[in-house]
Amino acid sequence: MRGCGRSWLVALPDCAAAGDAVGRVLGRGCHVVPHASGRPWLVGCWDGDELVLTGSGRVRLAVLGLCSLGGDELARRSVAVSRPQEVEAVLDGAAGSFAVLASVDGETYARGSAFGARRLYHARMGGVTVVADRARTLAHLTGATADPAVLAALLAGPGVPYPLGEAVAWQGVESIGPGRALLVDADGVGRSRVWWRAPEPVLPLKQGATALRHALCEAVAVRVRTGQVWGADVSGGTDSTSVAFLAAEAGARLVAATLHWANPNNQDHRYARQAVDALGVPHLTFPSDRVPGHFDGLHLRLEPGDGPSLGIRDRLQQEHMTELLREHGAVARFSGHGGDHAVIPPPGYVHGLARRRPLLALRHTTGYRARSRWPLASAARLLTDMGSYPSWLNAQARLLGSPRTALGRPPVGWGPPVTLPTWAGDHARDLVAGLLRDAAENGDGPLAAERGHHARVEQATQAGRGACGITAAHGPDRGGLPIHMPFCDDAVLEACLAVRPEDAASPWVYKPLLAEAMRGLVPDAILERTTKDHCGDEWHSGLVANRHTLAAFATDSHLAAIGLADPGALRRALISPALLTGGAAELEHTLAAEAWLRDIAAHPEPAYLKVHRHEPDPVP
Q: N or C: lower Cβ tally within 10 Å for the chain?
């Protein structure tokens, strides 16, 4: 099945009490797969190429997505399963990006990928716990509405700390979080358990680079069939370029695609040309003044996804590129998304390094101070702060109403400061503060004991969430090509996390881990690049070009209607984006939330939840 396309799937518990939930779902699916007991287990619509279904006796196993293990191998391994937790042994060593559902002797087991590129959700329906691959499916079936507190947190941008970033924008619907699985017992009661933990960062650079290259090779190879035509985003950066060279090595016939930004100082297109010349493949270039602009089509109301999506920024631009890639025969598209998140540890690693190798930590901190102009006092606090994660969350709740921290300062504590935009209303601040305090009091604690490693794992989950969002915004459901982001595969992110942060990051070398991993495959001139460009000019010009739509957003803002935005302040920001001080993301997340609420109002019922005639699906 295509996990973020028009397909959908619901997993029902194996109990008589699920009758009400079965009644709500059964008539809408074109496939029904039973538990061993004969009760409905999986109901939905999907294509067979992305769901592998197997079973043996009291065991049923479904792998959703891309997995290097075929049905025969999964069936052979699943014979030994006697308890739900043992399903993970069946998948040991598998490459790809996938979620897992299993029915084992009356119990249901469900989990997404470790970092969220493949996600599963759950909710109570008719008194039992039900799992689905789309939050919106559960929201519609349970009558859930948008959650104002989660939307308020989303206004803070990508920097909201764990676990706030995992919250679902529908009330009563929850995500099965990173590294966690859900077990639903024979009474329909779900309970969470850990199935994956981050590896300790102990590998030196060369050993870690070898493991990363192996993981990336497998991640690309599992997707490619020799001779297939693939589009490849070749931006000029090392991430997308590395994926393109790996795809060519795996046997793909590539068509490279490069966006050429207008700023004359932007060097991306020069590095992209070097990469394409070395690859010897067709090259499609898209000057930014000859493609739809950023935020074009913002007035169009689409089927809403599981939550707000930053895909609104370049949706029409990507559709234009997709059309030309299709004309050149591309069946899918590679992206380097997630590379930055995977291979660059956040600078907070110097805190833990100071306890292990104080002189090296001081040297790295001095380097970051020189490069990013950190104030001496902030750098000192970064090294010496000893507060716990709950105390840091509580501090963020108290400081929400304070002025923004100056740009360029290091993240003191467990992560970047949580800040809301100036147009966020008092109600939004109260809601976010409540979420932070609740996470401090009732949360599971950090993702790792050492704060630098916690930040790396959190950054990896941000890559996974972003990958799922990109798939939803630009995938086949929206007229695009399937987009594959190998850097967001579990095995690749895990390989990066296993490397010592002082080896994977450096104030003086750009992406040393990836450069070492790709040495001998990607041209040295690209691996040694030290700059990173952006499309800030296009971002601002897109806002100006669409000012009439933005003014209309301000006039009848849905965010303002539910008390999350001050109408006057929001209007000033929307019609005068040049006055923004917080960078592009400050406004972009607000626009995504506003557009999502408007999409829900325009499309209150999911178009994909239709009534179907079906026949029960056999289990191989």
A: C
